[in-house]
Amino acid sequence: MEYIILLAAIVGTFIVLMGLSSLQLRKLRSTHRRRLQPLLWITSARQLASRPLAPRPQVARPLANTRPLAKRPSNARSSHHQPADGRKRDRRALNPSISAPQSLEQKLASGRYHALQKQIEVLAARGWPKDEASWNSSFILHPTALDTASHPHQILEILIYHARQSTPGFEVSQCVLPSTLESVLVSHRLGAQALLSRALCQQILQNSGLNQQDVTLNERDTDICLFVCGFGRVFLKGYQKLPLQMQQRLGPRLGYLSDVEYIFVHQYIMQLRKTYQSQLLGRLQGRHQQHPNRLEPYRISSYFAKFTNAPFAGALILAL
């Protein structure tokens, strides 16, 4: 009997100890979970859906040291919006990428167009006349001079005649016309005139022995030859008007220089013409001083008037 009572006491004590240890373990787990809850809180989709999604109430806080802001116009770039002092905005100051156009002297000093300058000088020295007797004052061929021509052959005859007058140093001969040029002349007259002038310049360079082995350099020489012969204005009126797919059907594409390079070629050639005119006038005056009885002074002044060729100011930029 005593053994039974002792065994019951031992079992009871064990049960009490197990209960206490289980309770202590639950407390430890609860404490550990509360500590880790702000760091690792994983919820299931069902628990997340059961939570209220009401936003937190926002408390209005006054701003310290605030001042009323000026209302900005709806269109800040509008022409009616001007600064308070009445001065107009400078677009170049607002946009540094917009720069003033460079003069010819600035372009030459930059060295960017050095190779183009050398190509111009070579072609001009070969094509332009060396004496004052063959100097042509009507250097620039105006597009209106081709308005009376109704057939590509007539346009080509006018171009050939002008090239022989302005560049007697070149070998100017007939040119083979593209077979589809007549239809182009009806739909794109300016483009057809540009094609004809460029085809003639290609033939001129070939006949004069000025072709280069490099295809790109040869095509760039052809573009320069257009201005050396005085066809620059005719070409610029049409080279951007003709669709690219039509250019490819007729042969090489029209125009191998950029618009900026075309402007430089025109400016430099016009300055080079003035240099040539001054040299020819100096030779004429020198001969008059050596032989005053052979050449009257009024003939010098009248011959100098032949040199004057009013350049089309800004015509190249307008054509572009």
Radius of gyration: 44 Å
- Roughly what fraction of the amino acids lie in strands? under 5%
Structural class: mainly alpha
Largest sheet: none
Q: Please, how many helices?
A: 14
Helical residue percent? 55-70%
Distance N terminus to C terminus?
125 Å
Average pLDDT confidence is 71
What string, H for helix and E for strand, traces the elements in order? HHHHHHHHHHHHHH
User: How many beta strands in the DSSP annotation?
Assistant: 0
Low-confidence stretches: 39-46, 63-99, 245-252, 295-320
Looking at the structure, what is the overall shape? rod-shaped
Give a short overview.
The protein has 320 residues and is an all-alpha fold. It is built from 14 helices and no strands. Helix content is 57%, strand content 0%.
Please characterize this protein's 3D structure.
By secondary structure, the chain is mainly α. The protein has a domain at 104-319. It has 14 helices and no strands. It has helices at residues 2-36, 45-50, 91-94, 104-110, 114-127, 152-166, 181-187, 189-207, 215-228, 232-238, 244-250, 259-290, 297-307, 315-319. α8 crosses α9 and α8 (189-207) crosses α10. It starts with a helix and ends with a helix.
Topology:
Elements: H1 2-36, H2 45-50, H3 91-94, H4 104-110, H5 114-127, H6 152-166, H7 181-187, H8 189-207, H9 215-228, H10 232-238, H11 244-250, H12 259-290, H13 297-307, H14 315-319
